[in-house]
Recover the amino acids of this structure.
């Protein structure tokens, strides 16, 4: 974000704050694939061609086919394919896209990882996976074209000539051993860059074991449910910023309802065009005990009010934060997902920000932060994941990399976890007709000191729900 756009949510401006913390680009903790395997033994063959053959390009275009040369049907949901490349810089972040696929791009996933043993031609990989909707490969069948691509998040030109899996002369499909494949954890095709075997990786959907964890399915009756406080949450009622001067923070606007078999929390924010009529909403953990690890939530953003005229400059959030003890204090931390459906802070239309804060000074205003943003509508449900390790903060949205921020923005002290919805000002919609906006939250998850992939997050949430567990908190205080 524009660092001069506004004050962060510090304790001096409001009591609550928190935004999800970050992590290394695909530092998933997965081991590298075994170094080699026989296609004849397991039946999977990977074919490759490139649609961008230059030594450098705006984006790399590894087009792939997966063929079943065996005698038994293979479910594609159990197949993973890795394309290895050399990052253009240690801090470079990448985004994956599928241009077209016979199996349907919606059934193909792409995530990035970091090699345990970097080589001169590879320190990252793009891992291609398949959803259950991709079906199975019968003996002799292949996936057909998968026209895939990836690029630097900044759209800076990338160098391909030093990438392990790149074949500049491969302009037609052919078997390619520099791309690896494994089925259910066993390597079945290809050879990984030297030094990155022979240990099989765990399934990337496996949960991380016994790491301290907070999980809440928000299965409560109302904002007065005593379990909310017992489970460590506070529903804000005190006055103050951020947002419209004179607004209140009304606990009654936090409600709960069943939706598609899950309990969903709703945050309502309303106004009739005056400070006195404006009601903001926030829920936060009472304890600041969350630092490195994975933060995840499924959140429904809204582009329009539930009722009344549209146009207000509203902010819908999931974040972590601690308190600013002094101007420019170096132990301040804040990590935000912030969606502005109607713009604000100088933006004319909808925009999603992720921002990592090192510190700030309120007067005169000075900020030290890093941000990533996408100017597009994010109305609807979205899976938000932010991870923090000892090197970087990484944001993912719907399983795709959104932004990575460097070590300068890592937290020095623990934080709280927060959700809120509030109005920047009343200038976007001057009408005095009442209107109300909704932000919904399905669950929240924090796993201490573990960097999880989005697939691992989904597996953990599914395991909690499958066991009938609506709340667990084993994260130690302090």
């Amino acid at each position: 974000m524009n660092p001069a756009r506004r004050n962060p949510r510090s304790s001096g401006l409001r009591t609550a704050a928190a935004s999800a913390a970050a992590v290394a680009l695909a530092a998933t903790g997965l081991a590298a694939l075994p170094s080699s395997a026989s296609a004849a033994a397991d039946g999977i063959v990977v074919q490759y061609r490139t649609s961008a053959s230059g030594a450098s390009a705006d984006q790399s275009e590894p087009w792939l086919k997966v063929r079943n040369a065996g005698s038994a049907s293979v479910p594609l949901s159990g197949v993973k394919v890795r394309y290895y490349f050399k990052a253009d810089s240690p801090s470079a972040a990448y985004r994956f896209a599928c241009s077209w696929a016979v199996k349907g791009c919606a059934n193909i996933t792409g995530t990035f990882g970091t090699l345990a043993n970097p080589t001169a031609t590879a320190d990252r990989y793009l891992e291609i996976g398949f959803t259950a909707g991709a079906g199975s490969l019968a003996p002799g069948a292949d996936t057909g074209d998968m026209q895939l691509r990836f690029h630097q998040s900044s759209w800076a030109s990338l160098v391909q000539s030093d990438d392990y899996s790149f074949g500049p002369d491969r302009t037609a499909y052919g078997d390619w051993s520099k791309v690896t494949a494994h089925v259910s954890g066993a390597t079945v095709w290809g050879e990984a860059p030297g030094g990155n075997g022979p240990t099989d990786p765990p399934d990337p959907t496996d949960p991380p074991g016994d790491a301290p964890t907070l999980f809440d399915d928000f299965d409560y009756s109302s904002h007065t449910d005593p379990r909310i406080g017992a489970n460590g949450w506070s529903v804000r009622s005190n006055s103050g910023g951020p947002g419209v001067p004179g607004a209140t923070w009304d606990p009654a606007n936090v409600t709960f309802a069943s939706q598609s078999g899950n309990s969903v929390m709703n945050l309502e924010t309303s106004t009739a065009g005056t400070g006195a009529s404006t009601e903001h909403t926030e829920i936060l953990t009472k304890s600041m005990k969350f630092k490195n690890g994975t933060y995840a939530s499924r959140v429904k953003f809204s582009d329009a009010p539930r009722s009344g005229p549209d146009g207000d400059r509203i902010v819908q959030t999931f974040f972590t934060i601690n308190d600013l003890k002094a101007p420019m204090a170096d132990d301040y931390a804040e990590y935000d997902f912030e969606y502005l459906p109607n713009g604000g802070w100088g933006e004319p239309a909808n925009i999603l920000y992720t921002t990592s804060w090192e510190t700030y000074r309120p007067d005169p205003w000075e900020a030290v932060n890093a941000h990533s943003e996408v100017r597009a509508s994010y109305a609807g449900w979205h899976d938000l994941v932010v991870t923090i390790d000892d090197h970087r903060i990484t944001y993912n949205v719907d399983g795709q990399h959104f932004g990575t921020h460097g070590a300068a923005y890592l937290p020095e002290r623990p934080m709280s976890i927060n959700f809120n919805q509030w109005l920047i000002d009343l200038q976007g919609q001057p009408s005095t007709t009442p209107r109300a906006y909704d932000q919904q939250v399905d669950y929240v998850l924090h796993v201490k000191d573990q960097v999880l992939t989005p697939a691992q997050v989904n597996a953990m949430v599914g395991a909690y729900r499958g066991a009938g567990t609506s709340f667990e908190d084993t994260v130690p205080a302090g």
